[in-house]
Amino acid sequence: MKLVEPIIAFQSELQQIRRDLHAHPELCYEEQRTSDVVAARLTEWGIPVVRGLGVTGVVGIIKNGSSARAIGLRADMDALPMQESNSFEHASVHPGKMHACGHDGHTAMLLGAAHHLATHRHFDGTVYLIFQPAEEGGGGARRMMEDGLFEQFPMDAVYGMHNWPGLEMGTFNIVAGPMMASSNEFHVVVKGKGAHAAQPHKGVDPVMVAVHIAQSWQTIVSREKNPLDTAVLSITQIHAGSATNVIPDEAVLIGTVRTFTTPVLDLIEQRMEEVARHTAAAFNADIDFTFKRNYPPLVNHAKETAFAIEAMKAVAGPERVDSNTAPTMGAEDFAYMLQAKPGCYVFIGNGEGSHRAGGHGLGPCQLHNASYDFNDSLLPIGASYWVRLAEMSLPLA
Fold it and tell me: How far is the CA of 364 from the CAs of 94, 111, 268, in angstroms?
């Protein structure tokens, strides 16, 4: 690897920052301490700071030279509402809150790049450092945009990065086009007519209607969309009834839909409602249909992806960059930023978990797992990527 030497020398301080953030996790839109730490470090290094976008968001501004060109580098800051099972020294001190997705590491990597860029300034233009709140379901990227992120800080492109357990430590995975799926949820109430279970003819059984709807929905994916288009329709909850001898008045179907394109999502949402409504009508029942679109598909732009690949190769070497990785059905709110600006999103390998010292939980080192911990060996690698990306995007004359 060809890491940035001053960042290697700065790694121990970055590790201290990362582990401090891990020990003090904050949920979406509550990242006050985290944003205080970020803002204090940036200010200490002479970087102007703007706060308050997206409630707790922080934007650092590093300018050099006279070029009007600008790029944005984004890291997320929030934690998850889950109990950590690790017992090492930097484990969470807040019960029911945990950095189980590595946002502590993402923040530390961008701080490492910020320190180097502010100290050495081997670029011509502006680098905007975007520390975003509320990625975990809160839509913090969209909230920062609504508060004027791209109007206050005009940039030509924006880039994001996420650690990925299971990939070899320090490798990079990326693909042009769809890389992560849209995230959507549905909540359907089937309204029947309650009756004694021994006299079903006197009621309208919502449980059986729900079963028919659930089975019929699967044909939308298998028979109505183009088989070359990827989609997932998962019913994750069915709730009905409270006694063995009572047919309930209602049954509830809850779940998620994931797609890589909006047209496929439009088709699935429309047909889900039509199938549910007409199936219920066939049994003299009715429905309340709610479909909530959360995050859109994350689609990498071809030009910026090709450019980012060169920056990855400059840091990790060509053999450690997979530029045609398989997309994932997971979702990410950086997708909002890529709808508004050219750019791309990359995975950096977090390894298999061998980096975890004594005191880690019994589970695997996977995202959203109570035994997860970010791999601190990534700190200089990710920070070096950010630096090379900025320097190659904004070259000195």
Answer: 22, 28, 34
